[in-house]
Automatic annotation (TrEMBL):
Signal peptide: 1-19
Keyword field contains Signal: yes
Protein's name according to its UniProt entry: Cellobiose dehydrogenase-like cytochrome domain-containing protein
Organism (species): Thyridium curvatum
Gene3D superfamilies registered for this protein in UniProt: Cellobiose dehydrogenase, cytochrome domain
Length: 196
């Protein structure tokens, strides 16, 4: 098996024919790369395009819209066969987050694949930028949460599967939304390039 370094991994994320790109951030402990793009908007709500590239050993990878694990929409992704499942969750306490119906997500099947070394997913989320009690900044910096587990989920085919603790790590990361924000046309082109 070929070793893949961080620089190589970062180059793997979404980039359309005309170069529209998600803003990428590599989490060094887990080796997971998060990519984020949003369309131009004065303020939330706006759609959020999230991409994840995870090393094969990651059982699930999570993203929290509000930074903290608690009280904001969470997306949890995991491999299922050769595809990827994305589950919307919400946590009011430091317990396994429950399924959440305040978002609607669209997984781009052609961009959500698995091979020997990695699995990845691109998902468009409506409802991830605004919730009861908070929102994602459209301009300036925004803080997100990350969490990664080495444990495969119990029932990978089901979006409501039980998941286990983020033993690999968890924390917060800040992205400059001025760099994640694309014109509506560029955002549309990026979505299209991913199969949307
Ligand atoms: C079985 C599922 C989960 C359990 C039992 C769990 C439990 C916990 C606990 C006990 C803490 C605080 C104690 C500590 O520092 O270790 C914590 C913190 C955290 N968790 Fe989870 N968690 C789960 C899933 C998730 C998911 C899916 C995410 C998605 C990103 C996440 C993100 C975070 C973050 C960012 C923190 C840092 C503190 C904070 O911002 O609230 N967790 N979790
Ligand atoms: C997954 O992909 C591999 C390689 O393309 C293929 O051989 C295998 O049959 C696929 N598995 C499933 C469950 O689709
Ligand atoms: C969504 O979840 C809320 C809170 O649990 C619940 O009150 C509501 O009925 C749910 N809506 C749907 C369409 O399931
Ligand atoms: C496996 O997937 C990763 C992530 O998409 C990609 O960078 C890598 O080139 C793929 N490996 C092979 C052998 O296709
Ligand atoms: C915004 O986030 C970036 C990291 O993406 C960081 O380098 C920068 O210091 C932050 N700016 C402010 C004003 O917090």
């Amino acid at each position: 098996m070929k070793l893949i370094n961080v620089a190589t991994t970062v180059a793997l994320l979404a980039s359309s024919a005309h170069g529209q790109k998600a803003l990428e951030w590599n989490e060094p402990t887990s080796g997971v790369t998060y990519g984020l793009a949003v369309p131009e908007a004065a303020s939330a709500p706006f759609d959020v395009l999230l991409s994840i590239v995870a090393p094969a050993k990651a059982g699930w990878v999570g993203w929290a819209a509000g930074g903290c694990m608690l009280r904001s929409p969470i997306l949890v992704a995991w491999p299922n066969g050769n595809t990827t499942v994305v589950s919307s969750r919400w946590a009011n306490a430091y317990h396994p987050p429950a399924p959440y119906n305040g978002t609607s997500t669209k997984v781009f099947a052609s961009s959500s694949t698995r091979n020997e070394t990695h699995w990845k997913v691109s998902v468009l989320c409506s409802g991830c930028s605004q919730w009861v009690g908070g929102e994602v900044n459209s301009h300036g910096n925004a803080t997100f949460g990350w969490g990664v587990s080495s444990h495969a989920v119990d029932t990978p085919a089901s979006a409501s599967s039980a998941i286990r603790f983020h033993d690999v790590g968890k924390g917060h990361f800040e992205l400059d939304m001025n760099k994640a924000r694309l014109s509506k046309d560029d955002f549309g082109a990026l979505v299209k390039s991913l199969g949307g």
